[in-house]
Write a structure and sequence with these properties.
Radius of gyration: 17 Å
Distance between the termini: 26 Å
CATH architecture of the domain at 6-74 and 135-217: Clam
Largest sheet: 14 strands, antiparallel
Order of helices and strands: HEEEEEEEEEEEEEEEE
Number of strands: 16
CATH class of the domain at 6-74 and 135-217: Mainly Beta
Number of helices: 1
Strand content: over 45%
Length: 218
């Protein structure tokens, strides 16, 4: 199974905007914690945990993911990811991400320079505009962006967004009014649900072969 492009959805680390802790996040001291269960074809394959610390308009975000997809009790695909990001407002100031995708190691780092955001991914640094955003699904501002940074590969991708209809989504066992959006980019085609307050509620992606990957808050 080829998960290469689907893993973009696992690495979106901008700090969220929380209008309702009951729906999306839980407070732990001064931090906000987002704990997602991740499913493949309705089978739970792992967890993705985000911890957000905010002070003075700046955010520190840490992300840790661990997936193990098994077929007949044998690991067919393993994925580990850890990342740290520093944000000033809605602009990424620094990133350091490390990924092990079934034995393939990927490292991306970047920081704000004098004239733009410099991304390093094992070759010559690439300069992007001064204010860039990752695939930060929980910040609805991504829906207004023409480009987003893939923190796993360091690619700066053109995106297309289409607003869908409204529906009732079950979140932690409770019905929530949600609006559906389609987001597409190079090798990316997924659906995102937001509440009326623009809180990220769920995400679903169709992988090659028709496999469905879904994020659900736990």
């Amino acid at each position: 199974m080829n998960f290469r492009w689907v893993l973009i959805l696992l690495l979106c680390l901008q700090a969220p905007t929380f209008a309702s802790v009951e729906t999306t996040g839980e407070k732990s001291g001064d931090d906000t914690v987002l704990d997602f269960n991740v499913y493949l074809n309705n089978k739970k394959v792992g967890k993705h945990l985000f911890t957000v610390s905010e002070s003075g308009g700046e955010k520190q975000v840490r992300s840790n993911a661990n997936f193990d997809y098994k077929i007949l009790f044998v690991s067919a695909y393993q994925y580990e990811h850890s990342a740290a990001e520093h944000w000033i407002g809605d602009c990424l100031a620094e990133i350091d991400a490390d990924t092990n995708a079934n034995g393939k190691r990927l490292q991306v780092s970047g920081s704000q320079g004098a004239t733009g955001f410099l991304v390093e991914k094992g070759d010559e640094p690439v300069e992007l505009p001064k204010c860039v955003m990752t695939f930060a699904y929980w910040n609805a501002e991504i829906l207004e962006q023409p480009k987003l940074l893939n923190p796993q590969t360091g690619e700066y991708l053109d995106i297309r967004v289409e607003k869908g209809g409204n529906e009732i989504l079950k979140v932690r066992g409770k019905p929530v009014n949600a609006t559906r959006y389609k987001l597409a980019a190079s090798e990316v085609d997924l659906t995102i649900w937001y509440s009326a307050d623009k809180e990220w509620l769920a995400l679903e992606s169709i992988a090659k072969g028709g496999h469905v990957i879904r994020y659900e808050l736990s």
